[in-house]
Specification:
It is a single chain. The chain has 152 residues and is of the alpha/beta class. The chain has a single domain, classed as 3-Layer(aba) Sandwich (Rossmann fold), CATH 3.40.50. It has 5 helices and 5 strands, in the order E-H-E-H-E-H-E-H-E-H. Helix 3 links the parallel strand 3 and strand 4. Helix 1 crosses helix 5 and helix 2 runs parallel beside helix 3. The longest helix has 16 residues. It is globular and about 40 Å long.
């Protein structure tokens, strides 16, 4: 928290364990997949963090809605699909990486797209690409690594 006269800091590319908590944005248009990712994050919050560190999960069904939320609040991590209506994940990642206030937020792209989708997402600057169908343990370990939870 910033003291009077200080400018609040933007999230770093590699956040340390944060006693003030974490806010994760899930950008996905399939409600069943959102439910699975939410379950993983709730297990992390109650298990690894013991319910002692605030852990908020927010949702957006497309990139446009995600950008609105990202400009309104600070986030620690973004999990995004690549193929969605309105604004797809590729356009979202491109916008994130070109915005000084958002470019340091770690981004995980999770998609059923093939090698071309993976290459394009990585070229745009995603931190991690996971291929659907994704396993519970893959999502959990990726989130823990990017948020530096459980690492000394």
């Amino acid at each position: 928290m910033a003291t009077p006269g200080e400018t609040p800091q933007q999230p770093s590319a590699s956040p340390a364990l944060n006693p003030d908590g974490y806010r994760v944005l899930i950008v996905e248009d399939n409600p069943h997949i959102v439910e699975m990712y939410s379950y993983v994050l709730k297990k992390l919050a109650s298990g690894e963090l013991g319910g002692k560190v605030p852990f908020e999960v927010c949702f957006a069904a497309d990139g446009h809605n995600a950008l609105t939320q990202l400009l309104a609040a600070r986030f620690s991590l973004i999990l995004t699909d690549l193929y969605m209506p309105v604004m797809d994940g590729f356009a979202l990642i491109e916008r994130l990486r070109s915005d000084e206030t958002l470019k340091a937020i770690p981004v995980v792209a999770i998609s059923a797209g093939g090698a071309d989708a993976e290459r394009r997402a990585k070229d745009l600057g995603v931190d991690v690409f996971l291929r659907k169908p994704v396993r519970f343990t893959e999502v959990l370990s990726t989130v823990k690594r990017l948020l530096r939870i459980g690492t000394a």
